[in-house]
Amino acid sequence: MAEVSRRRFLALAAAAPIGLRGGGGAHVPAIVVGSGFGGSVAALRLGQAGVDVLLLERGKLWPHDDHAQVFGSESSIDRRMLWFQLLANYPGLPAVPMIPYPGVMQVDVQPGITVLAASCVGGGSVVYTGVTLQPPRRYFERLYPSGLSYTELDRVYFPRVRAMLSAQTVPEEVYNSAPFTHTRVFDAQFAAAGLPVERTPSTFDWQVVRRELAGQVRPSAIVGESSFGNSNGAKHDLTRNYLPAALATGHVRLGALHEVTSIRREAGRYALAVTRRDEDGLTVEQLELTCDRLVLATGSINTTRLLVAARDSGALPGLNEHVGTNWGSNGDAFVFRPYTGPVGPSQAAPIVSTAMVDQGYPVPIRAESAAVSLPGQQPVLHQLSIAVDMDNRGVWRSGLGGQVGLNWQASQSDPALRSALALSERVGGTTGVGSAAATAHPVGGCPIGAATDLAGRVHGCPGLYVLDSSLIPGNVGGANPALTVSALAERAMDQIVQAGG
C-alpha cells in the first residue's frame, strides 16, 4: 500500500473532529482505544470494512520538522519526553525537575521493575528502534497456543506488516558510515566469537538517514535519537502508514489527547469514561462514550490495568481469571561494555545487527547492537539483550483503593541478566555493567488463548477485543514485540471482519 503523505495525514486528522465537544456523551458503533501497533491495524481494517470507528489516543499527535527539535532527547532533556512527571525518572537520565506534560513516554515504576510505555499517536512505533524481527519458530511454538500457526504468520502476516511498515535492512553505504562504527565493532566481536550476526529489517527511513549524513536535515537518527522520537521523521512510524490509511477510508475519526480511565458494560453496550485534555495536558472535560464493539489496544500495562480494574470492581464481571496473568519483561537486559578500537563521532540509533544465541547460557538470548546516547566519542558498546524466558511471569492485581499493581520480584529478571552478562564476557572480554531493572518491551496481562480466543475476542465479554502486546504470553520468543503484535492483530482482524463481528 502506498504511503499517505504526512501533509495529507495531518489534514485528515484536522478535518476529522470527533464531534464530542461540549460535555455529555455520544454513541458510536466501534471504538478502538490506543493507536500503537495493534490499534492502528484494527482501525485500518475496520475502516476498510466500512465500520465507523472512533480511535482514541491519550497522547499527542506530534509534527515532524526537518530542522527543529520537536522531541526532547537524552542530551536535551525537557518535558516533551515524559508522560506527566515531576522529575525525569527515565532510566539513565538525571532526575531533573519537569513540568507535568503529556510527553511521549510513560515511566511506570513497579516493585522489582520499571516499565516503559509509549504515550503518543503512533504508540511504540514513534519511540522504538525500528526492529521488525519475527521470533524463531522453535520458541514461538513452545510459547503460544497450538492453534496459532507459525507457518501462516510466516507466509501471510509477517510479510504483510513488514511491507506496510516499509521495513528494510540497512543499506551498505549507511552501515559503513562513521555513526555506525559501534555497530561494525559489535558485529566484529560477535564474528570473532564464532557467533553469526544477521541484519535485522528496520523501519528507519534510510533516505532520511542519508539526508542526515549529507547535512541536509537536522541530525537525529545518526546522533542516537530514537527513544523519544525522531523530529525529522526518520522512522516509518505508524503515522506514515497504517494511521493515515485508516483516516483515508472516511470511516475512522481520531481523538488525540483522550484518555480512557474506566470501562463497563450496561444495556448491551460498553461505556467508557474518558478524560479529554488540551495540548498542555490540562483537563478540558470528562466524557462518557458508548459503543457496540470495543477494541482495547493501549499496550500491555494499560490494557491490563483497565481490564483487571473492571473485573474486580464488577464493571465487567464476565472476565476470567487469566486476565492480569502471564505478564513478562520479554527478557530485556541492558549491558554496557568498554572496548578498544575505532569510535565514531556519535552512535547512530537504528538497531541493524543482531545475533541469536541458543545454548550455553541460563536462557537463550538475542543480542542487538544498540546505541550509547552520549555526546562525543564513546568507546562503549550497548548490548540490548532479549532473553527467551519460559518461566518468569508477573501478575497484575487490584489493591487498596482499586489501584492495579504488578506482583513481580526483581529476582525474576536474573536469568536474563546473567545470560546477558555472560554473553558480553564471551564476545567482549568483559561483563561490563548490566541491568534488567527496566523493560522497554512489556508483554502479557491478557494472554491469547486464555483470556481471549485466538482472534483476541475476550472471553465472557461479547463485542470486546484485545489487540496489543498484552496478548503475548509473557515473552515474544526471541524478538522485539512490534512485528508479532502487528501480525497477530492483522490475523485477528481478518477473522473478525470475515465473521462480520
Automatic annotation (TrEMBL):
Residues 436-489 form the Glucose-methanol-choline oxidoreductase C-terminal domain. The keyword Oxidoreductase applies. Its EC number is 1.1.3.6, 5.3.3.1. Keywords: Cholesterol metabolism, FAD, Flavoprotein, Isomerase, Lipid metabolism, Oxidoreductase, Steroid metabolism, Sterol metabolism. Pathway: Steroid metabolism; cholesterol degradation. Its cofactor is FAD. Residues 112-326 form the Glucose-methanol-choline oxidoreductase N-terminal domain. One of its GO terms (molecular function) is cholesterol oxidase activity. It comes from the Bacteria. Pfam families: GMC_oxred_C (PF05199), GMC_oxred_N (PF00732), NAD_binding_8 (PF13450). Belongs to the GMC oxidoreductase family. This is Cholesterol oxidase. It comes from Kutzneria viridogrisea.
